[in-house]
Specification:
By secondary structure, the protein is an alpha+beta fold. The chain has helices spanning about 5-30, 50-65, 80-90, 140-145, 150-160, 185-190, 245-255, 290-295, 300-315; strands at about 35-40, 45-50, 75, 95-100, 105-110, 120, 125, 130-135, 165-170, 175-180, 205-210, 210-220, 230-235, 240, 260-265, 270-275, 275-280, 315-325, 325-334. The chain is elongated. This is DUF3352 domain-containing protein. It comes from Candidatus Curtissbacteria bacterium RIFCSPLOWO2_01_FULL_41_18. Keywords: Membrane, Transmembrane, Transmembrane helix.
């Protein structure tokens, strides 16, 4: 008997409907792996809840990073005072995990909403960038590493406002640049900064190159690091503070599109974010100096630094984005 078109499509609809119902049921009921972060007595606890279906890939992922599988039972860690205060505010945190042997992506919600969200603009950064961050305040992070002179720190707080957010770009070994959307830096005040009780003028000078005026100020020398020569300039509506004259010249070439660059954070126009960062190790090898800058508390632990370098070099890319109480990110290994 020949089936009529109505009967044929009616019979076809039955398995399709069942398949859709099954897919929805599976999606709703599928158990997701997750992690949670809680704070306790000046330290943080990471707990994992790995579903059976993800256990093999998760252990493979840890092995690829030379991380002991015992960490799946949970681990504790500490941060510097600035980072610790920030993370404590957002805890407890829970994230759902999507796990493969080479990549873990995650997303979730935090218990507290960030105080500010900013309209973020994409900027050009050097191809050699290891770490780029957009946040409300990155100056505090740098100060915790470099112990900037108080008078210079006061100048930064006045001339690098936090109401539009700040960019931190770390490239080469220890070069960095801080950018803010402002072109109103007070260079007369910078020129008149004094660093000691004798009120002697600080070592300040100006240079002109690439049609840009650079303002250079030698900062106090940290015994464990090279001396910083803070170099500040304005370009394309931004005020930029670089760690040296050479790194400032590099940033000018990048911002002027005179050399190859990357885009950060590569978001849609008028995107509102509280925080975003990206880490990349594909362009240059990770150095001990870079690790010291990131993990100041481990600066004297050379063996620990080597372990950190080994892990960081195996991570191809990592990212984290925070928007209101939602966050997402990924860790991708080579």
């Amino acid at each position: 008997m020949k089936l009529s078109p109505k009967v044929f499509f009616g019979l076809l609809a039955i398995p399709l409907t069942l398949a859709i119902i099954f897919f929805i049921f599976q999606s709703c009921c599928q158990k997701l792996s997750s992690l949670s972060i809680t704070s306790e007595k000046n330290k943080f606890r990471v707990s994992f809840n790995i579903d059976k279906k993800d256990k093999y890939n998760f252990e493979k992922f840890l092995t690829n990073l030379d991380i002991p599988s015992e960490i799946s039972s949970g681990a504790s860690f500490r941060l510097d005072a600035t980072s610790s205060a920030m993370l404590t505010f957002f805890t407890p945190i829970k994230a759902d995990l999507n796990i493969s042997s080479k990549e873990i992506s995650f997303s979730g919600k935090m218990s507290h909403k960030p105080s500010n969200n900013f309209k973020v603009e994409n900027i050009k950064v050097p191809k050699s960038t290891h770490l780029a961050i957009f946040a409300s305040n990155v100056i505090d992070f740098l100060n915790s590493r470099y112990h900037l002179p108080e008078e210079f720190l006061k100048w930064l707080s006045k001339n690098f406002p936090t109401d539009k957010g700040q960019y931190l770009v770390m490239f080469n070994e220890t070069d960095f640049a801080v950018l803010v959307k402002s072109d109103k830096a007070n260079y007369d005040d910078l020129k008149n900064i004094t660093f000691d009780k004798s009120q002697a003028s600080a070592d300040y000078k100006e240079e002109t190159d690439q049609d840009v005026n650079f303002h250079l100020l030698k900062l106090g020398k940290d015994p464990s690091r090279e001396q910083l020569t803070a170099t500040v300039f304005n370009l394309n509506g931004y005020t930029v503070f670089s760690s040296s004259y050479k790194s400032a010249q590099k940033m000018v070439s990048v911002l002027k599109s005179e050399e190859e660059s990357s885009t950060f954070p590569s978001v849609k126009e008028d995107q509102q974010l509280a925080f975003t960062m990206i880490y990349n190790s594909t362009t240059n090898p990770i150095s001990q100096n870079f690790v010291k800058l990131l993990f100041s508390d481990s600066a004297d632990l050379s063996n620990q630094n080597l372990k950190i370098i080994n892990t960081l070099e195996k991570i191809q890319q990592a990212s984290l984005t925070l928007k209101t109480t939602n966050f997402s990110g990924l860790i991708k290994i080579k």
